[in-house]
Design a protein that fits this description.
The chain is α/β, with parallel strands linked by helices and about 240 residues long. It has ten helices and seven strands. It has a seven-stranded parallel β-sheet, with helices on one face. Helix 6 runs parallel beside helix 7.
């Protein structure tokens, strides 16, 4: 994909990142309406161009994008484990390493949560982590593997554990569903790692219900596009996490 796109931009000034991005988007057949392969190629080229620009000017890229907003960022650690005792042990390790926040799978072996037994198992895993430390910040990622009816019940049951957010409780293609889930609980909802460009995120933000968007720099369009996505999210008072 990168080789195909390169034919359209060879000879252009690498400092003109905006022009190059638009040239790829509108000058190739699949640029408009493309999927993960197309936009991952565009992202790779865009990130490389910003790297060239930063090195040519002798400054870190964040200075070219507007400068620092904060000096430090709190991060979370991913913890695995399908059984409550495993997630609890992983949480203890994270605490010993100095982490104050973790993210975990909402479903074992990435299976669909389509029965109440599986739903209860998810709740037990989260409860086990909460028991380790009542102050631990917990995020739960469902990878879109819950249908709308069960997602509403699940989100409500997780409220008592005060999660930071639940991620992809349903597939991001079902954008209109997030608003229904949000109305059924008081848990922040995050999604977006499988969406591309400002056009996908425009639809997501307009649909409502999502509190945190998660564009992937390597797939959503690179630094050029994600900077615009971030500005769109700000206009909707929605947080952004990378």
């Amino acid at each position: 994909m990168i080789i195909d796109m390169a034919h359209h931009i060879i000879g252009m000034d690498p400092m003109n990142t905006e022009l190059i991005w638009e040239t790829i988007l509108k000058g190739t057949f699949w640029g408009q309406g493309g999927g993960v392969v197309v936009f991952s190629g565009m992202s790779a080229l865009d990130i490389a161009l910003w790297d060239i620009k930063g090195k040519a000017l002798g400054v870190p890229v964040h200075e070219l994008l507007g400068g620092k907003v904060r000096d430090q960022i709190e991060v979370y650690r991913w913890i695995g484990g399908d059984h409550p005792r495993n997630t609890a042990e992983e949480a203890k390790i994270a605490i010993s390493q100095g982490y104050r926040a973790v993210k975990m799978n909402g479903t074992d072996e990435l299976r669909w949560i389509d029965t109440y037994d599986k739903l209860d198992a998810t709740v037990q895993r989260v409860a086990a982590v909460r028991e380790v430390d009542p102050n631990m910040r917990i995020a739960v990622d469902f990878h879109g593997r819950v249908h709308k009816p069960m997602a509403k019940v699940l989100a409500k049951k997780l409220e008592e554990f005060d999660p930071m957010f639940i991620e992809e409780p349903v597939l991001c293609e079902n954008m209109e569903v997030f608003k229904e889930i949000a109305a059924a609980c008081n848990v922040p909802i995050a999604t977006g790692e499988r969406l591309f460009t400002k056009y996908d995120f425009k639809r997501l933000l307009q649909a409502g219900g999502v509190d945190i968007i998660q564009p992937d720099l390597s797939h959503a369009g690179g630094l050029t596009e994600v900077k615009k996505i971030a500005s769109m999210a700000e206009a909707y008072d929605v947080a952004l996490a990378l």
